[in-house]
Amino acid sequence: MTERNHVLPPGLPAPAPMRDGLDAPFWAATRRHELVVQRCNGCGGWQWGPEWNCHHCLGFDIGWTEVEATGVIYSWERPWYPVHRALAEAGPYVVLLVELPHAGGVRMVGNLVGDPLQPFQIGDRVRAVFEDHDDADTPFTLVQWERMG
To answer: In this structure, what DSSP letter does residue 106 have?
Structure first.
C-alpha cells in the first residue's frame, strides 16, 4: 500500500516492539508481508498476543508459525470521534476483530481498508493487507484487513 492508501493518517505513534523482543518475529514477518502467530511446539496450541509460555499446557517451547492471511469478522467498531489529535480528520474508520480459523481461532485486531461506510457484517471473510510505513524512523508494517469477494 502506498502512503495515500494508509487506513490511518500520518502522525500517530509508531508501534513499538516489546523491549524484551517477544514480538520481534511478528514484526519481522509483517515486513516480509507474512502473517505469523505463536504456536506451542509441545501441545500444538495457538495463541495471540505473544506470550513466553503456552496458554494451553503452560509449556515454554513456543514458536512462530506462518498462517493463511485470511479470517472472518468476529466483531467491529466504527469510531467517529478522534482519540488522538492525528485522527481529527480521519473519522469514521472501522476497527475489526478478526478470527483466524487457520490458527486455532485466535483473534487479531486491525482496520478495515476502503470506504468506512461500506456494508459488511460479522462473519464476512477478510484477507490481510500489509501497510508499509517505510518513511518512519524505524520502518514498520501494519496488518490491516479487506473484505473478500
So the answer is: E
pLDDT value at 17 more than 70: yes
Peptide bond into 49 cis (omega under 30): yes
Q: For the stretch 10-32, what's the b/e string if a residue is b when 16 or more beta carbons lie within 10 angstroms of its beta carbon?
A: eeeeeeebeeeeebeebbebbee
Measure CA 65 to chain center: 15
pLDDT at 3: 45
pTM, full prediction: 0.88
Positions of E strands within the chain:
36-40, 46-47, 62-66, 70-77, 95-100, 106-111, 125-133, 140-147
Q: 4-13, 49-58, 76-85: which has the highest mean pLDDT? A: 49-58
Of the candidates 66, 70, 78, 47, the one whose C-alpha atom is nearest the C-alpha of residue 124 is: 70
pLDDT reported for residue 1: 41
Q: For the chain, what are the domain ranges? A: 18-147
How many other β-carbons are positioned within 10 Å of the β-carbon of residue 113? 20
The x, y and z cell numbers of residue 9, run together, are 493518517
The average pLDDT across 91-99 equals: 93
